[in-house]
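Ticket opened by: R.M.
Priority: normal
Category: complex prediction / small molecule

The reporter submitted a protein together with copper (II) ion and asked that the result be attached to this ticket for the collaborator who will pick it up next week. Submitted input follows.
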Amino acid sequence: MYGVFVIDPPQPRSAADELVMVMNGYNTTFDAQGNQLYAVNGIPFHNMHEPVRVKRGQLVRVYLANILEYDPINSFHLHGNLFDYFPTGTRLESSEYTDIVVQAQGQRGIWRVEVPASGQVLFHAHKSECADLGWMGFFEVTE
Ligand SMILES: [Cu+2]
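Result attached by the on-call engineer:
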């Protein structure tokens, strides 16, 4: 069992649509030798069929955590957009303006974006094995 515990700063962050994304995997053979499935928030490929719905131009804040076992790193790539990244979420100033972040086991951070155009925006791990085995999805950006 695992989850995310968000501690808000004394001065609240700006209003946003917020989402927790927990990157995880499953060793379905119980051999402790690796993962056969990968996911974000538990269900492989779920957001390919049920995209995360956001509004164009609306601030979206995502609490991203890597609790993947067996693989030393995981990553997150947002296609076609750059986002502000706050490693560990312990500072109110972003340290990066990027489209990819890499997290080691247990690492977490906060990213935020305002997507300027409507349509589908792909997100996935930038390790092909993870993406091919379930760790990918879409944001559906609407007016
Ligand atoms: Cu990509």
